[in-house]
Specification:
Elements: H1 2-34, E1 50-53, E2 60-64, E3 70-71, H2 81-91, H3 103-116, H4 126-135, H5 142-158, H6 161-171, E4 178-179, H7 181-189, H8 198-205, H9 220-236, H10 240-245, E5 288-291
Parallel strand pairs: 3-4
Antiparallel strand pairs: 1-2, 1-5
Length: 315
Amino acid sequence: MRRTTLLRGLGAAVAVMLVIGVAADAYAQSFFDSLPSIQGLDSAAFAGDTIIYDSTGKVVLADVGNHGDHRLAVKLKDVAPVAIQATVAIEDKGFYTNPGFDLVGIVRAAFDNIRAGRIVGGGSTITQQLAKQQFLTPEQSVSRKIKELALAYELSQTYSKDQIMELYLNKSFYGSQSYGIEAAAESYFHIPASKLNLAQASVLAGLPQAPTEWNPVLHPESAKLRQTEVLQAMVRSNCGAAAARLPARDPATERDDDPQLEDAADRPVGGQQQPEKKPVARSQGSALVRSGGGPADHRRHPRDGRIAELQLARR
C-alpha cells in the first residue's frame, strides 16, 4: 500500500514536471518568435545623409541630413583602431570574449538598482546596446531587459565581433545631431573616423552613454572629465596607444607640457583652416545626388564651428 502510494506520488510529480517543461518550452518558443528578426543587418543600409556632388562626382557641394541629423556610414576598416580600442575599454572590456552579455555586470547592476530603489543601470554590453538601439525602446523594464539579453545572444551567435562593432559604431548617437562615429568625427573635428588620434578618439568614445552631458561643445569641462575616464579605462585594459604612451601612469597626472599630449585649444576643429563651402545653385541640374554618405574621402561636413579640441588629460 505504501509502495503504491509512493509510486502514485512519483508519477504525479513527473507528470507535473512534464507539464511545466512543455509549458516552459512553449513559452520560450513563443517568446523567441515574438522577437524581431536580426537577419540582414548592414550598417550601409542605415538611413544616411544625402551627398550632393558636382557633375564630376568628385567635389562635394552639399551634405543634406535628415532635419539636421547626420549619419555617414563607415566600414570598420576605415575607423581608426584607437577609436575601437577606446570604445571597448570604456563600454565593454569583455566585448571580444563575452557571449553578448556579461553576467557579472548584470549582477552588479542589479545590486546598484536595489540600493537605489529604482533602475539606474543594466550592465549592458556593446552587443546589448546595439540590440536596444536597433530593435527596442528606451523603456526601462524587466521584460525589455530580457528581450535585450535574448537579442544580444542571438546577435553574438549570428554576427562576428567585427560586424557587431561596425553596426554599433554606425548606430550610436554622439550628440550634436551626429549618428555614427563618422558623422561625429566630421562634426566635432572635421576629419574622417580613420584619422582620429588618441585625444579625439577618447572624447568620442565617451559620448554614447550621455551625449548631451559630455558634449565637448556644450560642456567642455565635463567632456574633459569623461575623456580622462576613457583614458584611464584604456590604461587599465593595457590597450593601444594609451597604454603605450601612459604605461604606468594615471592620465590625470600627465604634465601640461608633455610633448605626447595634443593641445589644440582655441584652434579650428581638427587643427586646420576649414575649407570654404560651395553653395548649391538651384539651377545646377548636372549635380550628382547620392544617398547614404558616399565615399569617406569625398565627404565634407557642411556645419562649421569652433571648439577647443580636448587634449588628452590635464590636472
